[in-house]
Amino acid sequence: xxxxxxxxxxxxxxxxxxxxxxxxxxxxxxxDFLSPEWGHQQRQPRMRRRHNTxxxxxxxxxxPTQRHLLTTKKSSGGLFSSAGSILLQDTDxxxxxxPDSVSINxxxxxxxxxxxxxxxxxxxxxxxxxFSILAVNRLWRQIALMETKQIDxxxxxxxxxxxxxYDVYSDFDFVYHLFSIFPLISSLVIKDRYMRDRDLRVxxxxxxxxxxxxxxxxxxxxxxxxxxxxxxxxxxxxAQQQGHTSTTNTTITPTKPTSTKVIRASIKEELREFSRSVxxxxxxxxxxxxxxxxxxxxxxxNLEQKExxxxxxxxENGINPLTFQSSTAASLTQWRTGPSSPSSHASTSTAAPILxxxxxxxxPMTHYRFQDCCFAKDWGSAMDINKLPMIGLAxxxxxxxxxxxxxGSYGAPSKxxxxxxxFCFGAHCVISLDLNFxxxxxxxxxxxxxxxxxxxxxxxDIVDSPAYHDLIRLPALRGLGExxxxxxxxxxxLDEQELEVTLQQASMLLKALxxxxxxxxxxRADKKAPPISQAGLTEAISAADAAPSEPVPTYLxxxxxxxxxxxxxxxxxxxxxxxxEDASQADKIRTAKVLLKGVIYHGVSGLxxxxxxxxxxxxxxxxxxxxxxxxxxxxxTQPANLTTSTTVNLATPPATLEQQSSSSLFSSSPSSSSLFxxxxxxxxxxxxxxxxxxxxxxxxxxxxxxxxMSNLEPSGGAxxxxxxxxxxxxxxxxxxxxxxxxxxxxxxxxxxxINISALPAALSSALSFRRMSLPVSTLxxxxxxxxxxxxxxxxPEPDSDDDEDKDDSGVEMGRVSRSSSPDNGSDQESDSxxxxxxxxxxxxxxxxxxxxxxxxxxRQEWVIPEQHPVAIxxxxxxxxxxxxxNPNVYNKDGRSAVVxxxxxxxxxxxxxxxxQGGYSKELIRIRETM
Amino acid sequence: xxxxxxxxDNQDFKxxxxxxxxxxxxxNMLEDVGESDSPIPLPNVTAAVLTKVIEYCxxxxxxxxxxxxxxxxxxxxxxxxxxxxMKFMQVDQEMLFEIILAANYLDIKPLLDVGCKTVAxxxxxxxxxxxxxxxxxxxxxxxxxxxxxxxENEWAEDR
Lengths: 930, 159
Fold this sequence. Notes:
Chain A: This is F-box domain-containing protein. Chain A: InterPro entries: Ankyrin_rpt-contain_sf, F-box-like_dom_sf, F-box_dom. Chain A: Residues 107-143 form the F-box domain. Chain A: Residues 496-523 form a coiled coil. The complex is a heterodimer. Chain A has 41 helices and eleven strands. By secondary structure, chain A is mainly alpha-helical. In chain A, helix 19 links the parallel strand 5 (400-405) and strand 6. By secondary structure, chain B is mainly alpha-helical. Helix content of chain B is 50%, strand content 8%. Chain B has helices spanning 17-20, 24-33, 47-59, 83-88, 93-106, 109-123, 128-135, 143-152, and strands at residues 2-6, 12-16, 40-41. In chain B, strands 2-1-3 form a three-stranded mixed sheet. The radius of gyration of chain B is 20 Å and the shape is elongated. Chains A and B meet through helix 4, helix 5, helix 6, helix 7 and helix 8 of A and helix 5, helix 6, helix 7 and helix 8 of B.
């Protein structure tokens, strides 16, 4: 046996350390010792296998370190150990170097399986074994090459689906070679729980190998010049990949891309039909039920909401084929031969302009949604980086457009996104980009860079991103950013009327902006107006002096910069954005237009959906927070109540409450002591959490005083709608020492609104907005929950008590609350929306006894005074939600509105949204996830 | 009703018609010939192999006749062999191939499938050299072809 030991194995003796020796022995497989030197030592493809040769149930992947052990497993034993028979071979083949045993066996003739049977046997082999078949002998190779028409990828590389490390290339190469070597593959079997990642590789490799086309019908005509050129590029790439190695004589180079069928029995026929009809690949993995369900739901939703149709329409009607002038083949060549790394965005984009590019006819594109493919905890791995380059490359080669939807790419590192974008844009094929990522901070400068360097990218969504904030603050946006800030402040101040006015102003501003953009475009088309860049700065300044076409609030006019030109917003913005030095004027103009159109497209709704970077709160959340905060403020007075004995008659007319304005409630006058702070209500609040706009604990301390303990003054505000004259007596006798009442500020109407016995409910309500009191790093904004159920994001799993939020969200205002007790009040959120206008009849506070004197309070219904801060905040929120519920606005705003409505406790609002926006399905889904 | 099958080595096997008709070949013959007591010669099947084939058909006599798959899914799995079939196929390779050939000749598709799956399972996970060893196949590639194949599959080798 020693004669078969390879030289490398003999080198084992050179090792001195036992560990090294053992490791070396482990590295040298049994096969190395036993394999005859005469044979072709064909190694197993470096693929992992799901199943070993005997156990079909084994789904455990083989670790790379174990791989060689598996592939060199001796086959002499086991079930089929009686190897006395042979598969008859030509005995006249060379046997000059056959070992004796093999030579003897070869002479031992037995039954020979016919060609057809071998063909049938090969059909049962997974793809990873086909490469081995090719290298067995001529007959097997011929059968494999000529008869393999379908490949089963299901048992290949199951481990490491995310493609970490170098295995990414291994998997990709595997599929690529599969397509390249087997000429007649016409169908793929893909059924694997990890398929969603591999799908992309398969498709990409298929396209690169010229075996898969997104469509035959609308692609370049076979034989046409673009087609031949694309084929040439494909051939070049193949040659490059294979090192100019030609395949054996039986390998047939494909001459045309065939529509390879990706088979998934689980896909609904209509969806498959849809995907065929629009030539969009809908890659739905047969994967975990939950994931698959979500993806299908998402797809159905997209269909329902005409989101996909929109893109299809773009393809069919919306884009002039001449704009698709970046010959993808040429751009690819250029990209590949560029001097810099392809991962550098700058390097790809600063390559020589494609002046001589062929103009391909427009072909269908891939709509690539991260939410569909990159799911939850998977994010952060290498898959995100690996997918887009490949799919972008494939789109480039095939001349397809690419829609990149990064919405839902929570937590994506900015660097990764930039790299991915570089790949995609290196292909010059991205035509729409959704950058609405909330946890990834892409600066306006980068967005501008992306837009200006990619002429096909004409649609972008950056709402809710830092870039959006920066954009709307530019003078060309005519003070939209300031309006946003103003609205934010108005929400904090609960200035209802002014908010209404500002919303109208914003709406007018956007309309005017839209109209001026159209005018400017028309002017530009007529070439009547020279661009600002040519006219110089003075013209821009003089234009800024001109009156805007629509009245703009005065407070905005004074904030304009000299470059702001109300009449020519595109050029104005192009002057205000930062571009690369080599950006052309046309690119600047186009970039500005795309950005402006994006802002207008989302309109006021976009503003409402936008959060302030400092506070991290949207307007709606501000109001929700404000309402909750008001309750908290009232709650802060309660501990003091426990220290005194008093009787309160709640029959006091509500007018007495109206003296409390919202601004005074949260006035910013300094306060020396904070009841909130001292009583631990902000135990989790991180410094600066609401630094810019939210009232601090010190300012809130001003509203802490409890009217119930301040001179027994009449405290109304909460009246019984059905028995307005009813009176209650509260026996608040406690043994606790009385505080120094003289140090307490004057009472607040809000405080007086709170019935003592309802305080546990109020407490639970306040705490229900617990996220508000979390540190900034853990702040989780309810609005984000909209994506949990629809396939994206790495949001933390909703807390177990979020189920209680569900109950909470549906509670109508004014309803009599359920019972609660302080013992469970901290976590009990089901009563959270009843805190103010509720009367709790059965709760028993620890040190307080509440007694209904007149009639059972369960029948009482409380009415919040119209001017009470809580009522105001609810009305303002309702107004905003109505705006967001506009069915004409972008869908997600509506979804977001549903979430907000739920968190605000607006059951009627949900109905309103459903009526107006038809978000029923989404609503159900969202509520399921809340 | 029974029919008599005659193996290539002239052994007679009396089997139920229902069992014999698991073979599409025999079924067609019986349909063509009609009611007859004449033995059916099977010149391509030895007695040993025919015994195994009849054993298989007896066991599966109540199985529904397999119709050609019209499904869109061409998946062919080799890991779905029934336990009895798996034990049935625990024979030496020569017998295994003989059974496959007999199934092919007699047109017993389920048996042919099981045989092919069994062979496929032997092949699975093996290197070309191991496959050659397992089936005693001679490597008939020329050195030049070998070199070319090796280069062709270089990408797949461990780095």
